[in-house]
Design brief:
about 325 residues, alpha+beta, Porin
């Protein structure tokens, strides 16, 4: 009897263990899948980071000149960060990062501002119009063609601008710019700009820019832009000209067709480079992230000893305003 009870208890215990072993143990809940952040959130976060970094820099510089808090009128304006990719036929792909911003500092006079950027120093110092920059003409740049620039500017009477700054390597430069627009009629506008500059590389020089714009309608316009630069170092005019047609669409979209040419006086080549290009520009996110696509065909001849060549070119520019 006792043995039977013991045997029965052993069988019962064995059956319970077998049952427990047969019953599957509930699996631990898997951790929730980490979803990638939407592109919009990444772009918004990047813009906030760039702007906060610029404001942090502005606060630090402003504190050098006094004890006023930066919030008492300080701000960052005209902020721009752009990444450009371009490719000319028979050349490798070129990538360039450009940055520019102005800083209003409360501890400096109202019409004085600080500027900082990373760009082609010669184009900035000579004040070449943006339409004639190497990036816009899809020309390859070397590493030395881009450096940091910074300094202090002073606006006077809305038409005169003075700047004293430094470029990479702490090379000083100075600028004085005068700009005057004339509204000839409701559809015609003339814009004149004269910049006198001094730099270690070019010594004294000047750039003259003149444009004429005609509006055919509220969305279609034409522009003829000309610029010429002369310096003590070269003592020859470096000239550029463009004739363009611009069609704007809703939501800040713009389509343009431009014919460009440029050269150097008494270089042995009347026109060192000319061509045509088509541009399409539109916002990619809100009104501060812009994309630009450029397709062009050019006929360069940099030296008199070489025959004129021909080359297709393709470029893309992504610009963030902050």
């Amino acid at each position: 009897m006792g043995a039977g009870l013991v045997l029965g208890a052993g069988v019962l215990a064995s059956s319970r263990v077998s049952a427990q072993a047969a019953t599957p143990t509930p699996a631990e809940p898997a951790p929730p899948a980490v979803e990638p952040a939407p592109v919009e959130e990444v772009v918004e976060s990047a813009r906030r980071s760039v702007r906060s970094t610029a404001e942090w820099l502005a606060r630090g510089v402003d504190s050098w000149f006094g004890n006023k808090p930066f919030e008492a009128g300080g701000k960052v304006t005209d902020g721009r960060l752009s990444l450009g990719l371009l490719k000319r036929q028979h050349e490798s792909v070129d990538a360039g990062l450009r940055f520019a911003a102005r800083f209003r500092l409360p501890n400096i006079e109202e019409h004085t501002y600080l500027f900082l950027g990373r760009d082609d120093p010669r184009e900035v110092i000579t004040d070449k119009p943006d339409s004639f920059s190497r990036q816009q003409r899809l020309l390859r740049e070397n590493a030395g063609d881009r450096s940091f620039l910074g300094g202090v500017g002073l606006r006077w009477a809305d038409s005169v601008d003075f700047r004293i700054g430094f470029r990479g390597g702490l090379k000083p430069y100075a600028q004085a710019r005068y700009r005057r627009p004339w509204q000839l009629s409701a559809a015609d506008l003339v814009d004149f700009r004269e910049t006198v500059f001094w730099s270690v590389d070019d010594h004294l020089g000047s750039t003259t820019a003149l444009s004429f714009e005609h509006a055919f309608s509220s969305t279609l316009a034409a522009r003829w832009l000309n610029a010429a630069t002369i310096t003590q170092r070269v003592r020859k005019f470096e000239w550029s000209t463009s004739l363009g047609l611009y069609q704007s669409y809703s939501h800040q979209r713009l389509l343009s067709l431009e014919a460009l040419a440029g050269g150097l006086q008494d270089s042995g080549v009347d026109v060192s480079d000319y061509g045509v290009q088509v541009k399409w520009q539109q916002p990619l996110h809100k009104d501060w992230l812009l994309g630009e696509l450029i397709i062009g065909h050019f006929w360069p001849r940099p030296e008199a000893q070489r025959p004129r060549e021909r080359a297709w070119a393709l470029g893309g520019i992504l610009t963030m305003r902050f």
